[in-house]
Amino acid sequence: MDYFKIIIIAVIQGLTEFLPVSSSGHLVLAEYLLGFESPGVTLEVFLHFGTFLSVLVIFWKDIVRIMIALFGNFWKIRKYPVLIRENENFAMGLMIVLSMIPAALIGLFFGDEIAGLFDNIYMTGIALLFTGTFLFLTQWARDMKRPLNGWRALLMGLAQALAIIPGISRSGSTVSAGMFLGMPRKKVAKFSFLMALPLIFGAALLEAKDAFANADFIWSGMIIGTLTSFLFGYFAVKWLMKAIIRGKLHFFGFYCLALGFITLIFG
């Protein structure tokens, strides 16, 4: 794959990994409509690492505090009820762990079936319509100041798990779920990005073994792809945070609905 195609795919990955428009769906459409070949497992690892770094840079203070609180108190099981009430960083860390459960189970038991969906352009179109509908409906979601707790974290985790299907946006699903559950927009936005980090990092690790077994990849191309996905991922996170807080998430719904219909008509 030449540098031009690497940059195009990195831009798509960086923007759509966090904007609520489905990165997997856009990559499927890029391969189908633009005639791009699959980026391959090696490039995918580097692109995921770039987007991982973008969230890491933006939320690094929160991440450090959460990790210190979580690992410092992880074995104090009897004190969990008190820690959850009194230590916000510990509670956030525990909610992130809970949110990972649905995606881990679905990936473990249905991984092969889901992988086959990446070759189905019509399924991608239908999934984009699903994403667009939920985003459009968020304009009527009410902020009821409800706190993040265990069952709300699990429900947002279930929404994240559905995003394994190409065309269903991970950030769109999790943020929409949090908003429909009546949680504050700013807290929903932050939790949506933080809960994605372990899965992005875990996916990159799982693919890394096969990636580095390939001796044919070009380091310059991988570095360019990583930097590009990092820069556009950073921009996307900042942009989406503002859109969520201002209640503008539903505008992305129009885009997903239009793209879904175009995919079904011309796919």
Can you give a write-up of this model?
The protein has 267 residues and is an all-alpha fold. The protein has one domain (3-266). It contains 12 helices and no strands. The chain has helices spanning 3-16, 23-33, 40-58, 60-73, 80-86, 88-115, 121-137, 150-162, 170-180, 185-212, 219-245, 250-266. 40% of the residues are buried.
Produce the secondary structure layout.
Layout: H1 3-16, H2 23-33, H3 40-58, H4 60-73, H5 80-86, H6 88-115, H7 121-137, H8 150-162, H9 170-180, H10 185-212, H11 219-245, H12 250-266
Helix pairs in contact: 1-2, 1-3, 1-11, 2-7, 3-10, 3-11, 4-6, 5-6, 6-8, 6-10, 7-12, 8-9, 9-10, 10-11
Low-confidence region ranges: none
Q: What's the count of strands?
A: 0
Determine the mean pLDDT: 87
- Taken together, the total number of domains comes to 1
Q: Helical region count? A: 12
* Distance between the ends: 24 Å
Q: What would you call the shape?
A: globular
**Element pattern in H and E:** HHHHHHHHHHHH
Biggest pleated-sheet summary: none
Report the sheet-strand fraction.
under 5%
Rg computed from alpha carbons, rounded to a whole number of angstroms: 18 Å
As a percent range, the share of helical residues equals over 70%
Find the structural class using helix and strand composition: mainly alpha
